[in-house]
Amino acid sequence: MAQETTEITKKCPTCSAVLVISPEDLVITCAYCGETIDVEGKKIPNHQMLPSQESATIQANVQEFLKKHHVAEGVRIEEVKAVYLPYWVVPFSSNTQYYGVLNSTVTRYRTVHSRDAQGHTVTRQEAYSVPVYRDEKGSFNRSGRENCIARKHTTFYGFEKFQNTLFLDNIQPFDFQKVRKYGAEFINAEVDANEAQRDAYGRVEDENRSIAASRVSKLVRCDSQVHLEFPTYVHVPLWQARYKFQEKIYKVSAAGDSGKVLKGEVPLTFARRMLNLTIGLAVLLIFAFVAQLGYNMTPVTDTEIGGWVLIIIGFALMAISFMFTSTAFKMQLEKSEKIKPQNPLRPQKPEVQPEGA
Amino acid sequence: MPKITCPNCAADLDVPDAPIHTCDFCGTAIQVSTMVAVGATPAPGEKEQFIIKNHFIIKCQYDQAQVKNLLVDWVKKIPGAPQDFEEAANISQNDLIFYPMWVGEYAATSDYVGIDDWPQFSHPAVDRPGWYEYVSYYKKEESGHIIREYQKPLMAMDTLKFPKYLRDYIVTTTGKVYFDIQHVKKLGGSILDSIYQMDEAKANLRQQVLDSQSAEMHKEIVQITNRTDNIQEKGVFYIHFPLYEIKFEYRGKIHDALVDGSNGRIIHVKVPVSLEFRAKTITAMGAFGSVGVLLIILGAISTIGQVFGIGAGVGLIVVALMLLALNLRSKVSEKQK
């Protein structure tokens, strides 16, 4: 309420330091001793963190990323900063029962009578497809962990990629000195363990439904029993960098633990635009010519199939040529490093126990 | 214009005819409509019911000069934007406005009964045992239980006055602090207040939660026949977030921009396009279009081959249309994720 309470403080139960907190903070970490407590002062057990690469490594990786994308000369990195984001890692196990309909086709043959050029009756077998259906019941077990960001309405550049490639196997006990060492902004959680569990519950259920749906043509019913364990509180580093190139500002984000660039804006110079336009036009004209060659081959029986193949290839590559052409007209490129998702959403080895049709 | 006394600092206020007003002196969010209904001056002991306690602000991290620099740096990247933009553009308006929104946090559990389409099979396929040639669906009753956690936002502005570029914009509420009028005054900002009373906002947010629960139910059933919802309201917050509304004049034309003051993101900018760029793109467009049409004509009369002529000609016309789109593009937004 107004000016009376613009600053909220809390006393650390371990070192008695007075901590200034935000009204949204539900889990607070002492900036002096690293103790982590909830708003009622109760200690949060097993607070973990992911170590980060040094700022110099991040800068080198950003430079490497830009070099790979042909932007090396004239780049000036203006700012590199880390933010330590809070996560709840929720271990879960689940059992899913599903029921649905499978679609397939069977090939059948029918006898067709027709007349040839001489007026004789010709009989031949013609293949045709018939759709067939059956029900499918199944179940599978899936266990693992859900990484739930302990913030609400959080958006950072590259955040989606960060979430999808987050790997928390290298976690180690939390040490505030390390956060300080990286000069990182430190963010407390505004989601408590119970909320994280509810969030994880919904996500596990949704993912199980998605897996079940992938196993049938039409999912009719899907029920998951989800068991959640108490989550681990983990702080994870995300780096954000800004660089200047030809007096224009661009952004890059990098994962703190691996130091790898997650996503970055790549400038399009005039020369690069022209190169893309030229390649696009060249591909368009060359493959229009290839399609013409194919078209010329189709009237001859021996080369008819080859002709159709060339026509299809020609038109497909003419369509692809527009990828190059449209790149020439973009404001800038958005590039991501290939990082193998190490916390796949799909189960590693789901147990499937079909229960018959 | 109703006259009320601020229930927190006792200042006399002439307030707009709106349900909520943020006190110009102490920053307290006052439920004006509730206050006016019972008398403009609250009796001792009644003050609390007219005050929105969970009133927050997302602090603005940029002043007007910094926002101008951000905008200039960003506009320079846009193809066709004039390179003399920094010197030639004249900013005529650069207003910091704190927009209102409500955010509600809920834990929801629902039990439901409904009707679903259940398959029944007929005409066994003789050539594939266990499979059938026909499937039809009959109505079957099903029930279930849904547990979900929600955080729902509600922009508290009249849709006609609300910038349309904000409709799909995710306001980052990270870093919110209790509302501080001094922060607004220091940056020369102004405050807009909610068009909804707190009860209306709560009803709207609750309905959003019920709709989300319904969507979850509809994943399993096609029709809900009975439901019991337990929607636990964990908190409803009234939040002001900072936006810079900028107008600038470039070569006699007025353009506008909207910048998020909390993170410097360019939500929208109407971009001036240089005459030189327009001339170049129109020339290129004409060249590609003409060659394209020529190739189509030559293809049609089989001088250069039908497929080559028509295929390449259509391709060049597509390139010409891309140039036209680039020429006509006037609005750009910064990606949020």
SSE blueprint:
The complex is a heterodimer of chains A (357) and B (337).
Chain A: E1 8-11, E2 18-21, E3 27-29, E4 36-38, E5 48-49, H1 55-68, E6 75-115, E7 121-149, H2 159-164, E8 172-173, H3 176-181, E9 185-186, H4 193-215, E10 218-228, E11 232-245, E12 248-255, E13 261-266, H5 270-297, H6 304-328, E14 333-336, E15 351-352
Parallel strand pairs in A: 5-11, 6-9
Antiparallel strand pairs in A: 1-2, 3-4, 5-8, 6-7, 6-10, 6-11, 7-15, 11-12, 12-13, 13-14
Helix pairs in contact in A: 5-6
Chain B: E1 3-5, E2 12-14, E3 20-22, E4 29-31, H1 32-38, E5 55-58, H2 64-75, H3 85-88, E6 90-124, E7 132-155, E8 176-178, H4 181-186, E9 190-191, H5 198-217, E10 223-250, E11 253-260, E12 266-270, H6 275-300, H7 306-328, E13 331-332
Parallel strand pairs in B: 5-10, 6-9
Antiparallel strand pairs in B: 1-2, 3-4, 5-8, 6-7, 6-10, 10-11, 11-12, 12-13
Q: Could you please describe the fold and organization of this structure?
A:
The complex is a heterodimer of chains A (357) and B (337). With 357 residues, chain A is an alpha+beta fold. Chain A folds into four domains: 8-44, no CATH class; 45-97 and 139-265 and 336-352, no CATH class; 99-136, no CATH class; 271-328. Chain A is built from six helices and 15 strands. Chain A has helices at 55-68, 159-164, 176-181, 193-215, 270-297, 304-328, and strands at residues 8-11, 18-21, 27-29, 36-38, 48-49, 75-115, 121-149, 172-173, 185-186, 218-228, 232-245, 248-255, 261-266, 333-336, 351-352. In chain A, strands 5, 6, 7, 8, 9, 10, 11, 12, 13, 14 and 15 form an eleven-stranded mixed sheet that branches. Chain A is flat, with a radius of gyration of 30 Å. By secondary structure, chain B is of the alpha+beta class. Chain B has three domains: 3-53, no CATH class; 57-104 and 148-196 and 230-270, no CATH class; 275-332. Chain B contains seven helices and 13 strands. Chain B has helices spanning 32-38, 64-75, 85-88, 181-186, 198-217, 275-300, 306-328; strands at 3-5, 12-14, 20-22, 29-31, 55-58, 90-124, 132-155, 176-178, 190-191, 223-250, 253-260, 266-270, 331-332. In chain B, the strands form three sheets. In chain B, strands 5, 6, 7, 8, 9, 10, 11, 12 and 13 form a nine-stranded mixed sheet that branches. A two-stranded antiparallel ribbon of chain B has the order 1-2. In chain B, strand 11 and strand 12 (266-270) form a beta hairpin. In chain B, helix 6 packs antiparallel against helix 7 (306-328). Chain B is flat. Chains A and B meet through strand 6, strand 7, helix 4, strand 10 and strand 12 of A and strand 6, strand 7, strand 8 and helix 7 of B.
